[in-house]
Amino acid sequence: MAIKKTYKLFNILGNDIRFNIVNYLASEEKCVCNIFKKFNLPQNLTSHHLGILRENKVISDRKDGKRVYYSLNKKTLAELKKTLEKILH
To answer: Could you list the pLDDT tens digit for every one of the 89 residues in the chain?
Structure first.
């Protein structure tokens, strides 16, 4: 992962709401309805932050009927981890 992409991901995750969403998704995928209720946020604000995370491949989504479920994009996070390990060694 390029340093610019790593820097961008840190900026994205530097937002409290997005960081908390990523942390919440660490255990399993969640429906957007659960996410905005968990953080007591308006659905449109939650969707805005989910969109930023999805556009930058931090999370993935899947539709099941009218519901959208989000989960961590393990490939992107594994690349970020690998880059951090290089930086720290």
So the answer is: 777 888 899 999 999 999 999 999 999 999 999 999 999 999 999 999 999 999 999 999 999 999 999 999 999 999 988 888 888 88
For residue 19, the enclosing domain spans: 3-88
User: Is the CA virtual torsion 68, 71, 76, 77 positive or negative?
Assistant: positive
CATH of the domain at 24: 1.10.10.10
- Residues 76 and 58 sit within 8 Å (Cβ to Cβ): yes
Alpha carbons within 13 A on the beta-carbon side of 2:
3
- State the helix-helix crossing angle for 16-25 and 3-13, rounded to 10 degrees: 100
Question: pTM value?
Answer: 0.89
